[in-house]
User: Fold this.
Amino acid sequence: MNPKHFIIIFLTLIVLGESSTNPEEFYKTCTDSFTCGNISGFRFPFRRETDPAYCGYPGFELNCDEKNAPTINIKNMTYHVKSIDPTAQILKIVREDMIESMCPQDRVNTTMDYTLFDYTSGYINTTLLFGCSVSFNGMGIGPTSCDNNGGSTVFFMPGIHVPEGCESGVVVPGPDRFFDLSELGRVLQDGFEVKWKVGDAVCTGCSQSGGRCVYDDDTRLTACGCPDPPFLADRCAGVNKTRVESSPKPSKELFPILFLIKN
Assistant:
């Protein structure tokens, strides 16, 4: 192959690769809302794992299965989504390893990514205590068993603390109200609510202007995908656009191609 032809093909592939993330595609490929698993009402900042990355904010990817509840990974832990309230920006989730038992299979603490989520009111950090001595006399609730078949004995204590006399503890979100000990398993397996912090103000204005919220990887911020130029802006209609894209211009990678062809 002529070296000149090789360079032309190589540079052309670069240009085509860049066009695959052209802002013009944002509005066309992302949806206003979608159903994931058996739950409807999802919208930005969430996206399905099969959607382009710009259709959702990083950290909000959902694993969708037509027969099962959708799942989301937060701080390397998988949660099943039980419900969503898009207006209030509230997600109800439960640890995947606590669906069958109130005692987690993985003895690791529940942790949130507080840059993206926060617990709603009504929940506090509590600790499930394992391997406590017979003489243990804590200020918590218990002892009780992990399941209805006489599984491991566990204590339930408000706060984040493993007192002397217990081998280990696992922090889980628990209700801040009083409840009967017999309800402990049901309460923990019912999951907890978190509120997400991303995209509310920007997406409201974007939707009102006829656009769709997307993630701009260049700025690492939420932006508005529009059906007409400018394809990426703060809003798709009206004034006071603080960030707009100019009319399409030939990519700078095209100039070496034109030069080579000419010569």
